Amino acid sequence: MEELQDASIHHTAAKLINTIKTLKNYEPLYENVQKLVCSPSVDRNDMCNTLEEAIKNAGLETEIRNIIFHLVRSKLKPEEKPSQININDPLAYLKRAGVQWDRRVRKSLNAMCSELKMASQGQPRISTDRDELLSKWDELSNYTIDLANYRPVYAPKDILDVLLSLKGPTKAAENTEFVQVPKWEFSHISLPVKNLFELRNHYSDLLRTESYAGSSDMNLQCQRVLESKHAPLCQHLLRKGNTPAPYRGALWSFVLGSHVNSFDIEHWNRLKANVLATDHIVDKLVFKDIQLTASNDDQYFVFEDVLYQVLLCFSRDTEIAQMIQFEHYPIKGKSYEAPPSGVVPFHGICMFAATFCYLFDSPINLYFTFRAFYIRYCHRLTTINTHPQGIVSICLLFEKLLQTHEPQLWSHFRELQIQPIRVVFKWLMRAFSGHLPPDQLLVLWDLILGFDSLEILSIFAIIILSFRKESLMQVNSLDSIEAILADLSSVQVLPLVQLALSRD
């Protein structure tokens, strides 16, 4: 048994080393270690111990630990290849639907290109357009562009309609008679989700009274943790849910591994140069989305210019397509071009980035933290996938919690023939961005990062319905229900989540 454990540890270590060597920050890290080896603090006769001590004193040990922390959380997870998928897999239909949805979205984008006579992979900008874009880079709200013929490729409602139309393998009861499952429930999907007891265990830190420590005490904790530069400690601190605003951006950067280095600045400049050099249909879609959402929002319109910069560069970033793990499934048929980032802009995508405008003054710092957050969380909410933190799992968790803990509300929706998920889906898919006031949205996202889980979205959606249950039970139309839930300006995230987790 010990030999097997040693072999497993050795295999993991070798995998980590090989992966670290592929990272952008490997070379500067390796150079710093080489300098230490040649320094007087390292004794050739006791190389192992003295070098280890020198690495600690130089702060490189923490940097290496943070690198491993981020790798273990993401890049070392095995990817599923098409040849490995079992056709008898009960989730095969869902994986296939994910690929088909992605192809459908790309097809729609390509159709729009054909309709507007634009090249699907972009075309060189004419010099006058490039000069105007460059001159107005810091004030892109003044950049002249005709958007009359452009429309969002898809919205939350479109992906929800696809999810509700999915039909999985028919389940058979013990008496061998087929069980009819209402098409608008997700109970036929065989994805494991937690019950309230398991969620309470996962979020147990939120039920402790010290979560509400005084502001001065919390400021001191933040200062000490940031001085340590230790990503896991930063993540644990975010679990308290009352992060002081001045420290939030730095804490998020450590948890997401998004601190900006010299090679990141070079990468940003290349993305900007690509935007200036190439005219792409996604540019129009980005402008259209910001004008339809953030520009009309009292909380975000002041960030319009920086959002244009961030989303335009995001659309050109090929590293995003490399880092996002999409569903793999062999699908026959024509393939369609996608933007360089692999992400087709949808209605509301800019609201994910808008939140970060409250954390960073620099567009570059904002960009890389937003990008890391999108890759780890947002893409799971905006694609059809089988990930335990994906939108399907989050929807399934919502419905099971509603049936179990709010049976009256569930029955009320059933009697009205209204799918409960239709009421909250836009909240879930956008992680409440654009729906909650910024200060409360940041608290909610603190918890997402602190517990590394999107399940908090379902918990929060349920407690909002519970909180407004009396009003919901008195109306009998979808419009009336949506009207009751439209204004979340008075909602306080932390006490409501704590209430949801402490219920019987």
TrEMBL record:
Coiled coil spans: none
PROSITE patterns given in the database record: TBC_RABGAP (PS50086)
Family annotation (InterPro entries): Rab-GAP-TBC_dom, Rab-GAP_TBC_sf, TBC1D19
Stored Pfam families: RabGAP-TBC
Domain Rab-GAP TBC: from-to ranges: 242-452
Transmembrane feature ranges: none
Protein name, as recorded: TBC1 domain family member 19 isoform X1
Organism in which the protein naturally occurs: Musca domestica (House fly)
